[in-house]
Amino acid sequence: MTESRRKFRREGEAQRQGDLIAAALDLIAEGGPQAATVRAIADRAGVTPGLIRHYFHRKEDLIAAAYSAFAEQMTADHRTMLEGAGPDPLARLSRYVDRALRPPLTDPRQVALWAGFLHLVQSDPEMRAVHRTAYSAFREELRLLIEAAFAAEGRTADAARLRVEATACNALIDGLWLEGLVLSEEFTEAELARLGVAKIGALLDLPLERYLEE
Amino acid sequence: MTESRRKFRREGEAQRQGDLIAAALDLIAEGGPQAATVRAIADRAGVTPGLIRHYFHRKEDLIAAAYSAFAEQMTADHRTMLEGAGPDPLARLSRYVDRALRPPLTDPRQVALWAGFLHLVQSDPEMRAVHRTAYSAFREELRLLIEAAFAAEGRTADAARLRVEATACNALIDGLWLEGLVLSEEFTEAELARLGVAKIGALLDLPLERYLEE
DNA sequence: CGGATAATTCTGCAAGCGTATAATTGTCGG
DNA sequence: CCGACAATTATACGCTTGCAGAATTATCCG
Questions:
Q1: Do B32 and A118 touch (CB under 8 A)?
Q2: Cβ-based neighbour number of residue B5 at 10 Å
């Protein structure tokens, strides 16, 4: 008799927002921003479209929140990269490069998300700010690692030199990260990471390979 | 009296297809695939939407043609990079890297297009084939340049070694290309190119800097 | 100069989009 | 166990989208 209305469970705000953000990120990673429609996001999150507007004023707000979550996840991944690493500067640098070229960071999904957000980041000033903050954190961390490694070898470098070295290293890591997407069938993840450590060593003239674990 | 109908000029098939493709690329570069609607493309090309269907069966076909044009333009740009270069292998390699890190290849538009097409390329097998062809051409050219440069220095390298070196060099170039987008305010184009040549030299242990022009 | 032809415009449609709001219903405190 | 209230669903609206086909008109050829 009663037209059956869909059953549901009430969830907290944090939970539902998280689900919706996760759903949006999934869809953007799979099919780009165009795939992340209100209906598709709601469907993936297991709710009805109207709920999105209950938690986010406009769809654009949800997408912005999703980008923030993406950036935060990446910085969090970076932060754990040096966990449990010893004090030896060269070992730390080696480990950093190694970790940067393994999952989860080399997951094709990450590249897909990065590409999917590119235009949004460029057009929206607020998202652009989030991007710049996250990005310069990576560069700064790498710069410090390089500076410490140089110091451990008794080498000194002024700020300009360090900036150049960090830029080149960052570029090589990013490039290999990109390459990983294209060459995923040709290189195993261990190979990619090993290659990265070796080549960063060559770039900086540091014996990093010696510090490769296992 | 007569309801004024829009005036138009008849153009050849090649001309109109080219206009439509150019319009689509413009829009994708500016706002991603979502910005390239049938109406927006027609508007930018100075025609009415119906005409698109006269030249392309579906919108998807136009987008695929646009991607092919993009890939072709990039390979054409690469081909001209070594034009007028002398026979000296190290000079050729140096020039190649230098040119790869200057406009037109470092135009932010190129990165935006690359990102915009990423999802389409991954989902459509035909576009994926176009991508692989273009991409492996770049890698092969770089591999040959490296092999020749090694030979000129009296060094030999087996195929596996060359593949690794080419991958690393390609990654560094791609990474700097990407970096150029983010750091365009921080680095002049000449700086980026010079940095690239120096660091490729460090990667391969070749004195490339000596061959920098002017 | 006139008629044929195909390039182009015009109009319309069904589906999907984001948004708005009213109607329900799960949940929790008393 | 019940009433209140917010979480959730349902429905609807206006706009845009890609696509289709009919109506025009520029151009070319005899």
A1: yes
A2: 6
